[in-house]
Amino acid sequence: MAKRRALEPLEDIMDAPSPASKRSRMEDDLQSPEPVNGASSNGHLMSPRPQDRERIDIIGAYEEEHEELEEAGATLDAEEDGEASAFEAPKRQAAPTEGYTDLYLDTIDRKVLDFDFEKLCSVTLSNINVYACLVCGKYYQGRGHKSQAYFHALEEGHHVFVNMETKKVYVLPEGYEVMSKSLDDIKFVVDPRMSRDEVARLDKEQKICWDLLNRDYVPGFVGMNNIKANDYFNVVIQALAHVVPLRNYFMLEDLSARPQLAQRFSTLVRKMWNPRAFKSHVSPHELLQDIALRSSKRFTLTDQSDPVDFLSWFLNNLHLAVGGSRTKPNSSIVQRVFQGTLKIESQEITARADAGDRLRFEDAAVKTEITKFLILTLDLPAAPLFQDALERNIIPQVPLTSILNKYNGVQPQEKMKNRVRYRLQHPLPPYLLFHIKRFSKNKFVSERNPTIVTFPTRSLDMSAYVEPNPVLYPTGEPVWYDLVANITHEAVKKKDDSVEGEQETKVWRVQLRDRSRDEWWGIQDLFVERERGETLFTKESYVQVWEKRRGISTNAKGRGKA
Predict the structure, then answer these.
(1) Which domain of life is it from (predicted)?
(2) How many CA atoms does the CB half-sphere of 418 hold within 13 Å?
(3) Who contacts 380 (Cβ-Cβ below 8 Å, separation ≥6)?
């Protein structure tokens, strides 16, 4: 078979001369010097191996990218930063540009600012290094170049932020601190602080203040937000905020090293008495969150609880939060204000049959016990079961002094298999807490006693219920107490689609005495109104706070039945 002829001769295609013979090439190699690295013996570059070709491509691509970044001026000095970076972060300004010290301050909207809620970032839900946007009121974390507050400033155009811990105001993204005196009112609302002289004048000066919406309010007598079902919490905090020694302690003492329970209660009390508030009410959300956590969700803002159960839990935990001891009495402000001493005499009831098969009771030995108390429980007489002649249930009335006879040391009460007598001991605490027991539960139903308790608003003599002790208190001298707060209960029938039909819901309300005006205020969540002292007893009292008068007085001026 004939071979196909080439279209063009080889000499016309190749410029180089024809290759020499093998022998001549070997002689040239022996006479030529060592080849350069990476070059062949004939002076041409050697083609790289396949595994080296990929490495060369990567190195070449990196060099090209590095050259482009150098041209763009975006490389960092490795000696200064310690590491290479593609982009340089913008530098933070130490101070505003000259002539622009008040830049962005006109964008602050004080009407949307609400510092009562828990300080959590609205994006990360973190409570560390939280800032509040003074334009929209939302919380964001940090102010660095990768923080949520920094991104919020770039995306939304909101530039003024306040640190919730240090109360310093910054402008982002520039990052400098604002030193303007026009922001002092915001810093005061974030964390109200008053001097000792201002706190001492709270109960002496008749002060009326106005919020940003031009609504008037009286400091200390402001509404409290009922988020869902925390009205039981609101009335207790309102009452405790008017116990003067307790209020002054939490308004003046530095509690930064104490647990969050003490810090948040202190903040809430100071906001209730704030004379420069932006709004005429407060929200207990921050304190409620900590209480729900510490009580293992026993007391929450979604489920209604009993005010006395919460008061007892709160006082004991607050006592520990401010450094009180579990065993040593009067070791905290809580115990020094509310703790008293009670003597309990118990006698076992025994009986046996005699010779005539008659049951004969024997008097056993009397056991005496001295114990401490924070709250005194008062028992109501049983409510009537039958209707009167007009076919209406009679709402019974009983004076407060009658149910206080439980502590006169004479009237016995049966408790289990014992006969018990109670007697108060000197010295009585500066404030007395009375719990009028209205609710009783058994295995089947919960019952409410609607008995009305009549009481004086001033000059309640407690000397008849205290065992005389001439060493601590003169015998025969009255011990006067004046009413400070009265927590009342109201049963409201609510239609329900369940089998029971209409059910009663509990509504809690508190009545507070204004010392500066000698008036009474009624507060139910956000509703605040004046009340007449003569009609306070017409409500179903549940918890009462009584204040002991200073000094010894033998007269009964100001005594009047409410």
Answers:
(1) Eukaryota
(2) 12
(3) 398, 403, 436, 437, 438, 449, 451, 453
